Amino acid sequence: MADEPLVLGIETSCDETGVGVVRGTTLLADAVASSVDEHARFGGVVPEVASRAHLEAMVPTIDRALKEAGVSAKDLDGIAVTAGPGLAGALLVGVSAAKAYAYALGKPLYGVNHLASHICVDQLEHGALPEPTMALLVSGGHSSLLLSTDITSDVRPMGATIDDAAGEAFDKVARVLNLGFPGGPVIDRYAKEGDPRAIAFPRGLTGPRDAAYDFSFSGLKTAVARWIEAKRAAGEEVPVRDVAASFQEAVVDVLTRKAVRACRDEGVDHLMIGGGVAANSRLRALAQERCEAAGIRLRVPRPKLCTDNGAMVAALGAEMVARNRAASDWDLSADSSLPVTDPHVPGNGHTHAHSHDAHDHVHEISKENLYS
Ligand code: KG4
Ligand code: ZN
Question: Where is the composition biased (Basic and acidic residues) (predicted)?
């Protein structure tokens, strides 16, 4: 609908420079420039390399998104940006760019939470989020179970990993198997040809006295590494496909078991799964199976919307506009440990009004020189 908020979203919390444009819950553009190849030889994301790549990719990616969406920057109703959590230097590039564009164009600025954005993105795929929704967010940086009754104001942490993130475990196991980085997609592929029951790897934090909704993947990762070492020490061949399948099964078994249990305990009948690991084919299949058995509706966005992207930030920004949430102030700062309970960083309502004259002036300049 034409009267729904048109919002541009910027995401730079890790190694993806993402810029998306949405109108309400409709995706118009999703431009992503990734620096993942630059990190591959280090086996993980190098913050300084990521920041520099964001800086180089920012303006071209914004231009590309606007072009893809077929809209003019002056028609935007707001600019949203990931304010945290994430890598401090990387976040700073996005926040600075968002401020510059918002200020120059005279648009409200919305600093939003990366995790809430991962949940909200599903509106672009499956329409308005049911309230409440349980969300399982699994990526290289996070593994959390979150319960939300209103994605703009109420996100409650149910549980999280106490050590490695699920994606991190995939990446580390892939490194031990010499499969390259990132490890998730390649383990997923190898696992399809392996036996998930070949090796009984441990399921972390699943004992009767363990925290019901927290995760732990570090013990699993070590168990896999030891198992492989022992094989190699004995001069035996490592059955890569069986290791991949058995490891993957251990991860997704725990993730789905705990997510379904949280839904049941809280009486929530919608589960969404987001983050890069949501692309995992076995996770999707097992979640579907277990949700069906428990009478829970499963919502998983398409893989491109599950990994870090700007559309998810725009989606949450549009929801902030639609629900009349306060815009952020011009002194919005990147917060690498922004609490998950803060879906956005509202301002005190002063700086926007004060700088109005300045906006209008800059707006004229920008119209003539930048966006004509
Ligand atoms: O959300 P994302 O793009 O970035 C953040 O970490 O925030 O997630 C990347 C993570 C990596 O750890 C990668 O190995 C994992 O998601 N991943 C997968 C799959 N595709 C990506 N893990 C398991 N199976 C996959 N198919
Ligand atoms: Zn993420």
Answer: 354-372
